[in-house]
Amino acid sequence: MSLDDAAEELASSLGVDKTEVKTDLEKLVSYSVPMDEAKQSLRRKYGDGGGDGGGTPPKTDIGEITPETGNVTVTARVLTVGTRSIRYEGENQTIFEGELADGTGRISYTAWSDFSLSPGDTITAGNAGVREWDGQPELNLGQSTTVTLEETPLSVPHEPGGDRGLIDLEPGDRGRNIEVRVLEVERKTIDGRDGETEILSGVLGDETTRLPFTDWDTHAGVREGESVRLEDVYVDEFRGVPSVNATEFTAVEPIPEVSVSESGTELSAREAVAAGGVFDVVLTGNVIEVRDGSGLIQRCPDCGRVVQNDQCRTHGRVDPEDDMRVKAILDDGTDTVTVILGRELTESVYGGTLEDALDHARDAMDREVVAASIAESIEGREYRVRGALSVDEYGANLDANRFEGTDDDPAARARAFLSEVDA
Ligand SMILES: [Zn+2]
After folding, report:
1. Ligand 1 mean position to 296 CA, how many Å?
2. SS3 61
3. How far is the CA of 386 from the centre of ligand 1 (A)?
4. 62-149, superfamily in CATH?
5. Which end of the chain has fewer CB atoms at under 10 Å, N or C?
6. Ligand 1 centroid – CA 298 distance (Å)
7. For the segment 75-110, what is each residue's pLDDT rounded down to a tens digit?
8. What CATH code would you report for 166-254?
9. Torsion angle of alpha carbons 140, 144, 145, 148, nearest 10°?
10. Ligand 1 mean position to 304 CA, how many Å?
11. C-alpha 58: how far from its chain's center?
12. Model confidence pLDDT, tens digit, residues 244-283
């Protein structure tokens, strides 16, 4: 809506002069006040005619709030509080995010000031803004919001607090607490918003699953093999997989050793693809085709990208390094994914080392013989594949860390069959 239209609409609904409203609106917008907030504040200034005194929005049940609802007043229990630093108009700003609940529903919130919220508090947020995020309403607690602590706790059908198993984490979660073992960690230098920054990245595990993580504050307690409680982490998405983020606001405490799930999550290909990505998944299906780009390949020595005719897209003409991989289409009857085997697994399905494969190609005077030999041994057979599945616009890729023929271990197959019969 243009400023002119907004002024017109406001003036007619408030019964005041349009020019005056427009001048006020222009001023507020020039101070970077968002249009919705500017309109609200003019409604207050000119009196909404609602007769409820000063334009305090009505008390609203969380279950009734939609993205179209105007400002509201809610009484709710604070379920979680997460702290983050964001860059807003060139400045670092600390914001607080989490979930509120009453007896009718739950809603995410963002607080732009420190209202000293704690999980379990019952609060009344007066004049909270409503905005849409991903199709859902969200509460905005800003400068024009008043937050008062209620003496009597509101009873809600949700347990306040952020403790979760890794399997229950979803992108968008804030203020979560996890108890995990650090399975892998490496230190990296990245080009962050404040220039070059050191971060830690790796893999965390608990009894439920494993997930990738980034520690933006390189906590000393985050070391390979250590079990830790991380308080106040947030979750975002990396290539369709939930990813845990620790920050300067995350507290890290050593705890007794956490046992880690040894088995990945067993899903059908359709379920895994529909999930948009799964970090540690097990799929069972038939290899229907070994794709081009399998067998002997060559990589740029600088960036590791696959190169053809000694040309890297980034580094131009290079002296490439030989490598092996397999890109195989796996079909389990519900959907297909492309399984990618790295060098080690490729050597094992080929039945020889990279040097053997290079000899093989030299003798045949054809590098394609390696891919052909791999295709002959795996096409048409059923495999159990474990790894990280990511989904993008080009399809679903499963980066395998295990690749086992289901007929490799007949005893295990028999046990699995018998347990199905028993069940
Ligand atoms: Zn390169």
Report:
1. 18
2. coil
3. 29
4. Nucleic acid-binding proteins (2.40.50.140)
5. C
6. 11
7. 999 999 999 998 888 888 999 999 999 999 999 999
8. 2.40.50.140
9. 160
10. 6
11. 35
12. 999 999 999 999 999 998 888 899 999 999 887 888 999 9
